[in-house]
Write a structure and sequence with these properties.
It contains 4 helices and 5 strands. It starts with 7 loop residues before the first helix and ends in an 8-residue tail after the last helix. A 5-stranded mixed β-sheet has the order 1-2-5-4-3. The protein is of the alpha+beta class and about 120 residues long.
Amino acid sequence: MAAPLRPLIDVILDCLDDAKAEETVAVDITGKSSLADHMVVTSGRSQRHVGAVADQMVTALREAGYGKPRIEGLPHCDWVLVDAGDVIVHIFRPEVREFYNIEKMWQADFAADAH
């Protein structure tokens, strides 16, 4: 398999735009978490739209050379998590996103040595 040509975050953000995902927020979590470098939070209009956005992302990542991501939450499509390695994507229905409000938590300015 050839090495990917485009940065992972660009592939994901372009895919979300093409899929008509709404209110997309990309948070740089480099240094805040060892899990990933970026977290992306976005919304789909309905359960069907959330599932379609996730499916489109799987296709876009494969076509860009990133392989198949791990996915959680597809059966219900209220909140689908796509783990693409260095980027973790959360796709929510609007009501569920508002309830959890996870981007606010990750956008907080954490001190590196805070305990």
